[in-house]
Each structure stands twice: as structure tokens, then as C-alpha cells.
């Protein structure tokens, strides 16, 4: 590749958010570590995301507080004062991330290719990754590793799960049954499936011998959704919504047999610990943002939704075009979800097939 930078000794990564995206970035970071085991890696990251990845081997995290305004930029500059990196991988197109990149001294600053370097990111970099045709977000990130001489291979993850968190989970989920986790809430309510569907799927899973757990964050929306799911399921479910830290949730996902989720961070967290995911998609293209290694189990209503809104086939729309509006997720049926659940069980746990 023209302009490729080989074997950096001191590398900085700028990727602040979100949970799913930093999970993708971990695969890239660990590919770099395998290729360049002596490279020192500093990762500038958001506060919440740092909570999930603390303890990641061989990575120094510098937390950038996105909500602190000017003080956040000053703190970042002070933390990195006197340091200069061989390479900065500027992996976030948001303008505030580009402003943060001004606080990072590096000989080479690598950004996205011209097609994807939106919000003026190209003004803040002096190298670009190679163009890619319709990549998954993770493939886009791996392009940054390729730009510094790392061969592109099947992504791998080795996530930091400590014994304390794993013990906590084993105490909460004291069961000999296989575990199915429902992470029902996305960051935007319109991307959530309805509680009737989740409740009925939970009911069917319990009937098949699963212990069903609901996981999620502490917001009132998530707590209300969990309560409505329970109200739609005649059996008692294990409700951990709002009761886990991010590392504890990762530990939960690690011991689960399957996860059901819309377009949300925990779906990608599950991928990092090799737990199969049934993804529920109508607003975003799962080929771009779906569970990377479990695309076969996605219930996908994105194509019909986006074509109906834009009156064009997906192939003629810009990559990453989203479908908008409420009610799109209602097109996903309980039977479609259960078909994917049965396919997943047959593929991964044939001993559970009745």
C-alpha cells in the first residue's frame, strides 16, 4: 500500500465511543499487538467505554471527558504533554474527536479514506486508510491496522474479565440450565422491539429449558421495558437491568449460550466473548453494524424499510443509509425470531435440540 507505515514503536489510538465501536476496535488493537508485540499503545477513549475495557493487556488508557467542554481538551493536552507518537490512528469522524486530535502530537496521523472522512476529518490527518467497498464497521477499523503493515485476518478478541466479576455473575445466575440473555434496549427507543415479542420469546425459551435473563442499563426506559417483558411472560425471569457494571454485563454475556438484542452495544460485547447473537434490525444495515460473526442469525427488516422510504434499492443508496421512524421494528415477527433461535441452537448446541 502506498505510504504504508511499518512497525511503529509508540502508537496512539483515538476512538472515544460507542460501546459497540470500541468492541470492534479491540479486535484491531489486538491484531496490532500480535504483529508488533513491542509497540507501546495509548488509547484515548470515553469515560464509559474505558470502564468496559479497563485491564485490557498492553494498553494504556487516557480518558477524554466529552462532556467537560474546553476543560476536557485542556486535560487531554496536559496528560499527553511532552509525548510524541510515531502514529495516531484517528478512528472517529466526529468533529469533537478531530479537535481532540489536536492535543495529540504524532508524526503521522491516519484517518479514514476520502469517502468516509466526514465532518472535515481529512483536515486533521496526513494519511488515509485504503478505500473499502461497503465495509462492516469492524472491517473499516481493521483498515487502520492494515495501514501500518498489519495483515488483515479473521478478528480475534481477548477481553478483560476478572475473577471477581465472574464470581459475581455465578452467584446471580445459580442455574444448571443453559442461559439465554435478552438485552432489549438500544440507545434510541425506536430501535427496540416490542415487549410482547420479547415476552413471548422468553416464554418459549423457558419452555425449551433455558434460564432467561434480562440485562441492560439503569435508565428508567430500560427498567420499564424489562418490567413489561416480564409482564408478558408467565414464568419468572431473572432481571439484572440496572444491576450490573459494564464488566459484570460482559461476564454475564460470557457465560450465556445465546443473546437476543437489537442494534445495541451488548450485542457486540457478546461477539467479543464468542456468544452467538440473534440480532433484530430494521433501522440500520446489519451488514454494516450487525453482530460481526453471527450475521446468519440476524432478523433483517432493514432492506425493505429503507427501500420503502427512499424508493430505491439498497444497492443504489449510500452505504450506511438508515431507515427512520417509529414502528419499523414491529415488522419483526415472533416466528422470525424463534426461527433464528432454533437455527442458532442447532448450529451451536445440537444437544439442546428437541
Report on the structure:
The N and C termini lie far apart (52 Å). Strand 4 (85-90), helix 4 and strand 5 (106-111) form a beta-alpha-beta unit. Helices cover 38% and strands 15% of the residues. The strands form two sheets. The protein has a six-stranded parallel beta sheet. It has a six-stranded parallel beta sheet with strand order 9-8-7-10-11-12, sandwiched between helices. With 354 residues, the chain is an alpha/beta fold. The radius of gyration is 21 Å and the shape is globular. Helix 1 (19-35) runs parallel beside helix 5, helix 6 (163-172) crosses helix 9 (246-255) and helix 7 packs across helix 8. The chain folds into two domains: 10-147, Rossmann fold, CATH 3.40.50.2000; 163-352, Rossmann fold, CATH 3.40.50.
Binned strand content: 5-15%
Name of the top-level CATH class of the largest domain: Alpha Beta
The CATH superfamily of the largest domain is known as: Glycogen Phosphorylase B
Helical content (DSSP H or I, runs of 4+): 25-40%
Name some characteristics of this structure:
single chain, 354 residues, alpha/beta, Rossmann fold, 2 domains, 6-stranded parallel sheet, 13 helices, 15% strand
Q: What's the structural blueprint in terms of helices and strands?
A:
Elements: E1 10-14, H1 19-35, E2 40-45, H2 47-53, E3 59-63, H3 70-79, E4 85-90, H4 95-101, E5 106-111, E6 127-128, H5 137-147, H6 163-172, E7 179-182, H7 195-207, E8 211-214, H8 220-231, E9 238-239, H9 246-255, E10 258-262, H10 265-272, E11 277-281, H11 286-289, E12 299-300, H12 302-310, H13 334-348
Parallel strand pairs: 1-2, 1-4, 2-3, 4-5, 5-6, 7-8, 7-10, 8-9, 10-11, 11-12
Helix pairs in contact: 1-5, 1-10, 6-9, 7-8
